[in-house]
Design brief:
With about 120 residues, the chain is an all-alpha fold. The longest helix is centred in the middle third of the chain and has 79 residues. It starts with a helix and ends with a helix.
Length: about 120
C-alpha cells in the first residue's frame, strides 16, 4: 500500500510540474508576442511621423517652385510684348518662304465619274 501511495505522489508531482511548465510556456509566448507587437507599433508609428514630416517639406518646396514658375511666366509675358518683326531681323532671323504640301488622289480613274454615280 505504501508503494502505491508513493507512486501516486510522484506521479501527482510530475503532473503538477508539467502543468506548471505549460503555463510558464504560455506566459513566455504572451510576453514575447506583446514585445514584438510593441516594437512593430513603434516602428510603424515612426514611419508615419517621418512620412508626415517629409510630405510637409515637399509641400514647402512645391510652393517655392510654384512661385518661381509664376515669376518666370510673368517675365515671359512682359518680354513677349517687346518681340516684333524688326527685333527678330536685328537678331538675324529671316522670314521663311511658305511651301504647302499637297497630296495626289489615291484612286484609279476619273474621280468625278465616281461621284456622279453615287
Amino acid at each position: 500500500m505504501k508503494q502505491i501511495s508513493a507512486k501516486l505522489k510522484t506521479s501527482a508531482k510530475n503532473v503538477n510540474i508539467m502543468a506548471y511548465n505549460n503555463e510558464r510556456l504560455i506566459l513566455n509566448v504572451l510576453f514575447w508576442s506583446f514585445g514584438v507587437l510593441a516594437l512593430l507599433y513603434v516602428f510603424l508609428l515612426g514611419n508615419m511621423v517621418r512620412n508626415i514630416v517629409e510630405r510637409r517639406n515637399l509641400e514647402t518646396n512645391m510652393r517655392l517652385l510654384s512661385n518661381e514658375v509664376n515669376n518666370l511666366e510673368l517675365t515671359y509675358l512682359s518680354e513677349s510684348k517687346n518681340i516684333d518683326l524688326n527685333f527678330s531681323h536685328s537678331l538675324g532671323f529671316k522670314e521663311a518662304k511658305t511651301i504647302y504640301a499637297t497630296r495626289k488622289p489615291l484612286g484609279f480613274g476619273n474621280v468625278k465619274l465616281a461621284q456622279n454615280e453615287i
